[in-house]
Amino acid sequence: MTNANTLAEADRAAILERLRVVIAEQIAPNARRYDESGEFPADNFAALGRAGLMGLYIPTAYGGLGGDHRLYSEVIRRLAKACASTAMLSVMHNTQYSPLVFHGTQRQREFFLPPTARGEWFFANAATEAMSGDSTYAPGAVPHSVLRPNPSGGFLLDAQKNIVSGSSHARWVFLACREESDSKGAKRAIFAPGLGHGAVKAFGEWNTIGMRATSSTGLDYRGCEIPDWHIFEPDLPLGQSLLPIGILGFCSVWIGIAAAACEATIAHVAGRSIELIQSERRAGGESALVPVHSTVARFESVQRQVSEMRVRVDAASALVDDLAQAMDRSRPQPGESIPTDVFERIVDRCLSSRVGTSETAIDVCRVGMRVCGARALQRGGLPLERLMRDALTAQVMGPTEDALKVRYGRRLLGLE
Predict the structure, then answer these.
(1) Residue 296 near residue 302 (C-beta atoms within 8 A)
(2) 337 and 235 in contact (C-beta within 8 Å)?
(3) Rounded to an integer, what distance in angstroms lies between the CA atom of residue 82 and that of residue 253?
(4) Among 1, 96, 272, 371, which residue's beta carbon has the most beta carbons within 10 A?
(5) pLDDT at 344 over 70
(6) Which residues contact 224 (CB under 8 A, 6 or more apart)?
(7) Rounded to the nearest 5 degrees, what angle is found at the Cα of 73, between the Cα atoms of 72 and 74?
(8) Which domains does the chain have, with CATH numbers?
(9) 179: three-class secondary structure by DSSP
């Protein structure tokens, strides 16, 4: 195990300053454009790659930042405040290569990690399968995707993944499948090639109300060649990195969205001038109508609602800060695993944080739109309508909030 101080504060500050520049110069100015077009934000990731920010968890020996969970969460939050789609894609990317960092073989690390750290390769998530619904994420679920022996060596993959994050630009796709000969349906984790490499075809359309620029169309694998060494050994505790890093990333996206909505609302009402017409009694007893200049911020109902927004954001942020710190305290060295009792406590924190932050994002955006009125509904002005659309995706992203609440409730009641 390592302690929480895995990254010097001076290094952390320097990384976040590089990120600030990329966000200010590239990501924030183009958020609206990518939302409207629904295109993968390739220029954003090119800029992140040039700044050395595509390998947050990758060890410095392989060219990465060697970052900790606290840095990861902070980076994702800042990205989400500017462009939620870019932030969510970054979550998927960092989550999907993480098994290599903690459990990959030397050959796998040497092949995959250096180009990824340089920003040359993007990793995609492909958990969702047609006909599976949210059961894809259920403990013990058997994948539809199948590996069968390749007469020429290695395996052939038959799979249809109907939602693949950043599928148009992914070089590698992390997915779960099963071997054709295994009657028990045990999961095997593999890295499959992305679109344009091998027998891979795109299908479907990604035209959603939120997270539009994640460009998550499906990928169809029919007889795609998979080398032996692209497959992880069975029984590795891959979930110990995938589940916490993925959920910490989701939570950080929702917090970033909520914080952006809160700040946009406060800035709008503080500067929103209004002119009220009031009756004023003058000398001699006569009344006259006179204009009174003020701001929306003067209304007590607005003051109360923006304070509630800020309190919700701060509470959710504290919850996720606590999760990141707990993950850093229990972070294993490569090749090690987290003790079962420690990991179970982290899972509980993950479930609680995931539900709490997704609800916070939606609630804060809703209040912001109510406070800002009709201007919040208009595209091209305040970012609130875009933030609300992005926040709503939390309701359907697997594992869904309902499934997480059930699982957390079962754990609290000692049923699993």
Answers:
(1) yes
(2) no
(3) 10
(4) 96
(5) yes
(6) 156, 157, 158, 159, 192, 193, 198, 199, 200
(7) 95
(8) 9-121 (1.10.540.10), 125-230 (2.40.110.10), 239-412 (1.20.140.10)
(9) strand
Residue with tokens 């080398």: 227
What DSSP state is assigned to residue 333? P
CA distance 223 to 200: 9
CA angle 165, 169, 173 (to 5 degrees): 55
Question: Does pTM top 0.90 for this prediction?
Answer: yes
User: Which of 151, 122, 237, 112 shows the shortest CA–CA distance to 187?
Assistant: 237
| pLDDT score of 64 | 97
d(CA 77, CA 84): 9
pLDDT digits (tens, 9 = 90+) for 383-398: 999 999 999 999 888 7
Kindly report, residue by residue over 23-36, the tens digit of the pLDDT: 999 999 999 999 99
Q: For residue 209, what is the DSSP state?
A: S
What are the C-alpha distances in Å from 2 to residues 144, 291, 330, 342?
Answer: 37, 65, 7, 14
Please give the Cα distance from 220 to 142 (Å, whole number).
18
Q: How far is 48 from 70, CA to CA, in rounded Å?
A: 19
Beta pairing class for 172-179 and 200-203: unpaired
Q: Are 173 and 219 in contact (CB under 8 A)?
A: yes
CA distance 214 to 38: 7
Residue with tokens 């939120």: 210
Share of the chain above pLDDT 90, in %: 73
Q: Which tokens in the block code for residue 191?
A: 């890295």
Q: How far apart are CA 285 and CA 323, in angstroms?
A: 66
Q: 3-class SS at 208?
A: coil
| Helix, strand, coil fractions of the chain, as percent rounded to 5 | 55, 15, 30
Distance (Å, whole) CA 230 – CA 112: 10
d(CA 296, CA 305): 12
* Contact of 159 with 144, CB cutoff 8 Å: yes
User: Rounded to whole angstroms, how far apart are CA atoms 231 and 237?
Assistant: 14
For residue 151, is the peptide bond before it cis, meaning its omega torsion is within 30 degrees of 0?
A: no
Query: Cα angle at 276 between 270 and 282, to 5 degrees?
Result: 130
User: Which residues, 6+ apart, have CB-to-CB distance to 79 below 8 Å?
Assistant: 19, 23, 27, 86, 87, 90, 256
Angstrom distance (rounded) from CA 32 to CA 38: 10
